[in-house]
């Protein structure tokens, strides 16, 4: 979690501290309310007031007024806490999302391959949202509920031990309910996230391969594949919600049962003379607070593991390091335009066999060097070793006489003009796309590039260089 905590800035901690103070005040008000209620009931019961109506109204009005102002304070503080927690957590989570994006941007093909693109997308969107939801919930109820529970329990123990036992029984019933939830549901959360990965994978695969799917009339096959993962995800979610569905009526049953038992036993105790009516009123209110607090805690016990699963998945991304990192070279070499391979061998991460074995050659400045070979013979793989998309397994690759591993990646890439097998256009204008290669390119240079690549049609587009193109063009 420390990776995620790093996204909190000092201001966030200050705002959180402020929210905590408000929450403290809330707990205090909530727990003092029943005392005033008890006092009012007591005044109403006391015959003495029959002689002095002025005093009677005064006491009730004062106590009632205090209760009203407490309720108003709770109301305002609840709004403020929701605002503060939402503000802090959403900004922090947007920073986490940024960090994940930045991290993934620096990943080599090896890390991207081992996480899979689909999973990286889920991790930087869905998982961050899950974690955000849980953190906001923890802030709003997770901190106050345990304090309220303990405090309220201390208060009721002093009021009546008989009634306390009733409350204790309800709490045990509630805990049993939560334990059941915990055992059945929590293991499913991890499954939900990995199934979401799969849904993403199939969706992405289908969209990128849409032409192949159409050409082979494989729509039905793709749909079946999608239905497969979709159904597993749905079934898992339905299971979780079914078990969660038992929770709510269960909790209502426990609460109503407790009220009933309290009134029943309370009536007996009052007739008995052990307690008076105001104690029962006060007690019932505290008991409800205890049960509510336990309910909140139990809901959190179910939500927290869900947040932990997502937090763990985000952490995995943030804490994995790229296999390909900057070298230490400070000065650019004087030699220009040569590429040399020395006994280069390469196998893909996780593969058993070498794709390239003992390749040695030198391409000098001004020469045109071509690799000829059948499909799958390793031509693209060989080229990918120059910009370090992959590092060679054995041997060395030199650009301008310097090992590619010694360059800073940015410097190395600046030396290379790379035309990928498949052209990729990003959403934006024609100009923006051409500027990917050189941020400072002038319009003349861009036009020259367009002419060289025979993209003369751009000039006849209505907005010319500023024409908008969609992703993929
Ligand atoms: N990302 C990858 N992971 C594992 N194996 C790969 C990967 N890319 C290519 N290969 C394998 O490496 C071999 C060479 O591929 P490639 O360099 O693309 O061939 P060419 O460009 O000459 O057609 C092939 O057998 C291919 O299956
Ligand atoms: Mg190729």
Write the layout of secondary structure elements.
Layout: H1 2-5, H2 10-45, H3 53-105, H4 109-115, H5 117-142, H6 144-159, H7 161-208, H8 210-215, H9 219-272, H10 277-319, E1 339-346, E2 356-363, H11 379-384, E3 394-399, E4 402-403, H12 409-415, E5 428-429, H13 430-434, H14 443-452, E6 468-469
Antiparallel strand pairs: 1-2, 1-3, 3-4, 5-6
The structure holds adenosine-5'-diphosphate and magnesium ion.
Residues 379-380, 421 line the site of magnesium ion (MG).
Characterize this entry briefly.
This protein is mostly helical and about 475 residues long.
Question: How would you describe this structure to a colleague?
Answer:
The protein has three domains: 2-319, ABC transporter transmembrane region fold; 339-415, P-loop containing nucleotide triphosphate hydrolases (Rossmann fold, 3-Layer(aba) Sandwich); 428-469, no CATH class. The chain is 68% helix and 6% strand. The chain is built from 14 helices and six strands. It has helices at residues 2-5, 10-45, 53-105, 109-115, 117-142, 144-159, 161-208, 210-215, 219-272, 277-319, 379-384, 409-415, 430-434, 443-452; strands at 339-346, 356-363, 394-399, 402-403, 428-429, 468-469. The strands form two sheets. A four-stranded antiparallel sheet has the order 2-1-3-4, with no helix packed on it. It has a two-stranded antiparallel ribbon with strand order 5-6. The longest helix is centred in the middle third of the chain and has 54 residues, at 219-272. It starts with a helix and ends with a strand. The structure holds adenosine-5'-diphosphate and magnesium ion (MG). Magnesium ion binds at residues 379-380, 421. Residues 379-380, 421 line the site of magnesium ion (MG).
């Amino acid at each position: 979690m420390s990776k995620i905590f790093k996204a909190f800035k000092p201001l966030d901690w200050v705002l959180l501290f402020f929210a905590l103070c408000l929450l403290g005040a809330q707990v205090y008000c909530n727990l003092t309310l029943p005392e005033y209620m008890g006092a009012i009931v007591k005044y109403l019961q006391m015959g003495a007031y029959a002689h002095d109506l002025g005093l009677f109204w005064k006491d009730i009005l004062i106590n009632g007024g205090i209760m009203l102002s407490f309720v108003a304070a709770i109301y305002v503080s609840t709004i403020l806490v929701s605002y503060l927690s939402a503000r802090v957590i959403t900004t922090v989570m947007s920073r986490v999302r940024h960090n994940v994006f930045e991290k993934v941007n620096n990943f080599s093909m090896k890390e991207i391959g081992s996480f899979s693109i689909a999973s990286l997308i889920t991790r930087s969107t869905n998982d961050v949202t899950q974690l955000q939801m849980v953190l906001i919930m923890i802030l709003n109820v997770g901190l106050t509920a345990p304090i309220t529970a303990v405090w309220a329990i201390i208060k009721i123990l002093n009021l009546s031990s008989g009634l306390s036992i009733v409350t204790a029984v309800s709490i045990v019933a509630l805990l049993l309910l939560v334990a059941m939830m915990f055992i059945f549901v929590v293991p499913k959360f991890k499954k939900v996230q990995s199934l979401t990965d799969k849904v993403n994978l199939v969706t992405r695969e289908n969209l990128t391969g849409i032409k192949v799917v159409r050409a082979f009339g494989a729509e039905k096959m793709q749909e079946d594949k999608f239905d497969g993962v979709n159904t597993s995800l749905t079934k898992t979610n339905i299971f979780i919600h079914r078990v969660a569905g038992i929770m709510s009526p269960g909790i209502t049953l426990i609460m109503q049962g407790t009220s009933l038992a309290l009134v029943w036993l309370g009536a007996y105790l009052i007739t008995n003379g052990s307690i008076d009516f105001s104690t029962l009123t006060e007690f019932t209110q505290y008991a409800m607070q205890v049960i509510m607090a336990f309910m909140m805690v139990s809901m959190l016990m179910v939500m927290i593991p869900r947040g932990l699963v997502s937090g763990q998945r985000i952490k995995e991304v943030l804490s994995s390091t790229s296999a390909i990192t900057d070298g230490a070279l400070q000065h650019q070499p004087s030699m220009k335009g040569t590429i040399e391979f020395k006994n280069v061998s390469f196998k893909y991460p996780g593969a058993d066999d070498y794709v390239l074995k003992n390749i040695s050659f030198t391409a000098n400045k001004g020469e045109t060097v071509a690799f000829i070979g059948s499909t799958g013979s390793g031509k693209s793989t060989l080229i990918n070793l120059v910009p370090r998309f992959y590092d060679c397994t054995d041997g060395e690759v030199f650009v301008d006489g310097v090992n590619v591993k010694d360059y800073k990646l940015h410097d190395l890439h600046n030396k290379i003009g790379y035309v990928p097998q498949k052209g990729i256009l990003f959403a934006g204008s024609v100009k923006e796309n051409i500027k990917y290669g050189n941020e400072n390119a002038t319009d003349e240079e861009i036009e020259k590039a367009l002419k060289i690549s025979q993209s003369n049609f751009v000039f006849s587009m209505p907005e010319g260089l500023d024409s908008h193109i969609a992703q993929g063009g």
